[in-house]
Amino acid sequence: MNKQQVVDIVEEYYLPVFARYNIVLSHGEGPYVYDNQGKKYLDFLAGIAVNLLGHANPKLVEAIADQASKIIHCSNLYYTEVQATLIKRLAALSGLGKVFLANSGAEANEGAIKLARKYGKTLNSDRIEIITANDCFHGRTLATLTATAQTKYQKGYEPLPAGFKYVPFNDIEALKAATTEKTCAIFLEPIQGEGGVNMPDATYLQQVRELCDKTGTLLILDEIQTGMGRTGSMFAYQEYGIVPDIVTLAKGLGGGVPVGAFIASDKVASVFHSGDHGSTFGGNPLVCAAANAVLTEMEENNLLDNAKKVGEYLQCGLVKLQKKYPTIISEVRGKGLIVGAELTIENGRDIVNACLEEGLIINCTAGNVLRFVPPLIIQPSHIDEMLAVLDNVLAKI
Ligand code: PLP
User: Where a domain ends, among 300, 326, 350?
Assistant: First the structure.
């Protein structure tokens, strides 16, 4: 099929919910992808913070192929060694005790919400409320879009599930005022990704942890975008010196293979019993083999250190561009390899499109924040390459 044939078919038959860019991708290698006309792009989006190892990583490809040749799927009615290996690693890395494997971020969050509700009810039958933060993003299922405190994702799907409350992010006093004897959990992204790479104030998460401890409220952290090393630590909460009661993961966990997880403390997890939750595909041997390969590659190639070091280089480079174009870039923020450049203009889509023309994939979130979430394998030379393209594009505005 040529490019136009692919575009026409997708536009005719796919539910029209995605505003796609006008390229047809065919394959990739490392931090680069190629379209079906052979054009090369430097990928600073990585499938929205998914392809941690870049594209076609040989170890990941081998692990998936090897597992596929043995057993792809067998249901959670049986035990598998690859799943045992993965959950033991995730428990050790997170400092928490029990893992459930799902197929996506929304599903991981959905499970965490169910667990928090069940736990709250063991304390008091009406302890079911969950507080989330304005501008957060937790997914597209009914409960997770209700947790997502942005009306644009909720409009048209009413009635929404009851029991969610919203407060401004970074406002500990608002959180204290909203927390009552009905609150079972406070549910936050440590750094808000879709909301515009919004950073927590230095002590905010510690104060939230203290509030939760004082009131017996659970702290759920959504690390679907920030987890798996993106900030330079395996979990962003490790950067802030706290441990949540439940953490959720997806995106980078499988390096591109769909797998999510929620990980809970033993105490919280103890309210779940056989039959209380489930999934046909969740944590099947294929995705577990992929996730194990991702973790091994991260360890063997020191990708946490790389994310930290190269992330600083990226922010420095963007700050230089901000100084050069102060009327276009108003702020640069982030941690490790989740970085945002806020624009003074209302919509960054034209900049994203111009970068695409020049062979660079980035994206724009929250309307006017350019988001950089490249693979964790990128090197300073890739940053230089990206900055040169962006510089060219900004110069033309
Ligand atoms: N939570 C966060 C922080 C996310 O960034 C996303 C996706 O962007 C989700 C949840 C939903 O994940 P998924 O699209 O895999 O359902």
Answer: 300
The domain boundary, picked from 258, 285, 300, lies at 300
**Is 251 noted as a catalytic residue in this protein?**
yes
Are 203 and 125 within one domain? yes
Is 222 noted as a catalytic residue in this protein? Answer: yes
Q: Is the pTM of this model over 0.85?
A: yes
Cα dist from 141 to 104, 129, 157, 163, whole Å: 11, 18, 10, 15
pLDDT in tens, 130-176: 999 999 999 999 999 999 999 999 999 999 999 999 999 999 999 99
Q: Of these residues, 98, 251, 308, 335, which one is catalytic?
A: 251
- The span from the CA of 353 to the CA of 103, in Å, is 31
Residue pair 157/142 in contact (Cβ under 8 Å)? The answer is yes
User: Which domain, by its residues, includes 271?
Assistant: 71-300
Task: Identify whether 353 is part of a domain.
Answer: yes
- The kind and range of the H/E element at 89 are helix 81-94
- Cα maximum dimension of the chain: 61
- How far away, in angstroms, is 261 Cα from ligand 1 center? 12
Do 133 and 150 contact (CB within 8 A), yes or no?
Answer: no
